[in-house]
Amino acid sequence: MAKRRLLSVLAVLTAPIVWAQEASVDFDQLLTACNADPPGCQLVLTGAIQQISTMADVPQATVNGYLATLATIAVSTAQSHSGVQQQMADVVAEVAGSVAASDSQAAQDLRAVATQLGSGQEVDLTQIAGSPT
């Protein structure tokens, strides 16, 4: 009985830690990876989109915030490295698709950013409401 109670207490105490580990995303590492290999950034960010989109027990607003930050990283990468604008526009469009069901306004703003980015226009990062820092 004592062993079962101890396991129950441990489960309660460690549950928030497991959630925090599952919910954490190293945006600095993603930004560094994108700056180190701009052509490979699309693959890295697409994997992160999939990971974040499937987070269980994480509030949707948090998920959307994480996704917006990925879009910010994509825009930053495109603005810093020539030749990857369309790839990064595709990433932003994928983020737009991922948030569309829960936040249609954010999805619309992200689609506009993707269009601007794909056409080579300068993009104001505040439109995305995400930050790589």
Structural Rg: 18 Å
Question: End-to-end span in angstroms?
Answer: 48 Å
Shape: globular
Order of helices and strands: HHHHHH
| Structure annotation, total helices | 6
Q: How many E-type strands?
A: 0
- Low-confidence residue ranges: 1-21
Structural class assignment: mainly alpha
Name the helicity range.
over 70%
Mind describing the biggest β-sheet?
A: none
Strand percentage, roughly?
under 5%
Count the domains: 1
Mean pLDDT: 83
Please tell me about this protein's structure.
- By secondary structure, the protein is mainly alpha-helical.
- The chain has one domain (26-127).
- Helix content is 72%, strand content 0%.
- The chain has six helices and no strands.
- The chain has helices at 2-23, 27-36, 41-53, 60-80, 85-99, 104-118.
- Helix 2 (27-36) runs antiparallel to helix 3 and helix 5 packs antiparallel against helix 6.
- The longest helix has 22 residues, at 2-23.
- Keywords: Signal.
- Residues 1-20 form the signal peptide.
Write the layout of secondary structure elements.
Elements: H1 2-23, H2 27-36, H3 41-53, H4 60-80, H5 85-99, H6 104-118
Helix pairs in contact: 2-3, 2-4, 3-4, 3-5, 4-5, 5-6
